[in-house]
C-alpha cells in the first residue's frame, strides 16, 4: 500500500499541478480552439517555470546539504523551496500574461502564488500539506471555470475529487501529514485560486 501511496504522491506532485491546471483549461474551456502548437508552447513554458526549475533547484539544495529530504518532509526544509517556487510562479504569470491568454488564466497562477505565500507563513508554525494545496488549486480552478462558463462537466469534478481523496489518504498513510493538515492544504489552494479567477472576471482587477 505504501508503494501505491508513493506513486500517487509523485503523480500528483505539487510541482505538476500548474501544468495539470492549464491542461484542464485547454480541454474544458473555449481555449480548446487555440492551435495545438500554441497550446504546446504554453504548456512547455508552464512546465519549465513551475516544475523543472523548482525541481532542479530542490535537487541542488539537497545535493549541497541545504535540505534534508527531496520530498521536503521536514518543516524546516521548506522555506528555501517555497521562495524558489514563489519566484517561479511570478515568472510563469508574466509569461502567460505576455502570451495573450485571458486574465483568468494568469489569475490561476496568481492564486497559486498566494497559496504558496500562505503555506510558507503557516509553515513557520505548523506543517501544512503542499500536495493538497496543489490539488486544491486545480479543484478551485475547475469550479471557477464552471462558474464562469456555466458548464459543469461532472466527470471532471468526479475525477478531481477522487484524485484529491486518494492523494490526501496517501499523504496521511505515508505519515507525512495529519488529516487536519490535509484539509487545510486543500482549502488553502482551493480558496485562493477560486477567488482570484472569479474576481479577475467579475472586476477585471487581475
TrEMBL record:
The chain crosses the membrane at residues 12-34, 40-60, 80-97, 103-122, 134-167, 179-203. It comes from the Bacteria. The keyword Membrane applies. Keywords: Membrane, Transmembrane, Transmembrane helix. This is PAP2 superfamily protein.
Amino acid at each position: 500500500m505504501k508503494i501505491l501511496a508513493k506513486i500517487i504522491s509523485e503523480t500528483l506532485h505539487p510541482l505538476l499541478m500548474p501544468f495539470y491546471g492549464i491542461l484542464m483549461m485547454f480541454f474544458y474551456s473555449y481555449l480548446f480552439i487555440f492551435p495545438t502548437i500554441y497550446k504546446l508552447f504554453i504548456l512547455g513554458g508552464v512546465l519549465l517555470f513551475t516544475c523543472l526549475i523548482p525541481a532542479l533547484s530542490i535537487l541542488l539544495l539537497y545535493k549541497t546539504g541545504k535540505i534534508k529530504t527531496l520530498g521536503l518532509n521536514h518543516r524546516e526544509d521548506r522555506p528555501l523551496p517555497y521562495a524558489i517556487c514563489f519566484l517561479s510562479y511570478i515568472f510563469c504569470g508574466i509569461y502567460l500574461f505576455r502570451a495573450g491568454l485571458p486574465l483568468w488564466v494568469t489569475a490561476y497562477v496568481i492564486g497559486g502564488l498566494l497559496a504558496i505565500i500562505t503555506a510558507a507563513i503557516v509553515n513557520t508554525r505548523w506543517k501544512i500539506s503542499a500536495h493538497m494545496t496543489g490539488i486544491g488549486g486545480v479543484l478551485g480552478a475547475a469550479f471557477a471555470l464552471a462558474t464562469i462558463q456555466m458548464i459543469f462537466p461532472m466527470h471532471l469534478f468526479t475525477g478531481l475529487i477522487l484524485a484529491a481523496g486518494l492523494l490526501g489518504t496517501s499523504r496521511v498513510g505515508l505519515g507525512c501529514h495529519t488529516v487536519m493538515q490535509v484539509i487545510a492544504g486543500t482549502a488553502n489552494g482551493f480558496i485562493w485560486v477560486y477567488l482570484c479567477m472569479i474576481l479577475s472576471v467579475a472586476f477585471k482587477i487581475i
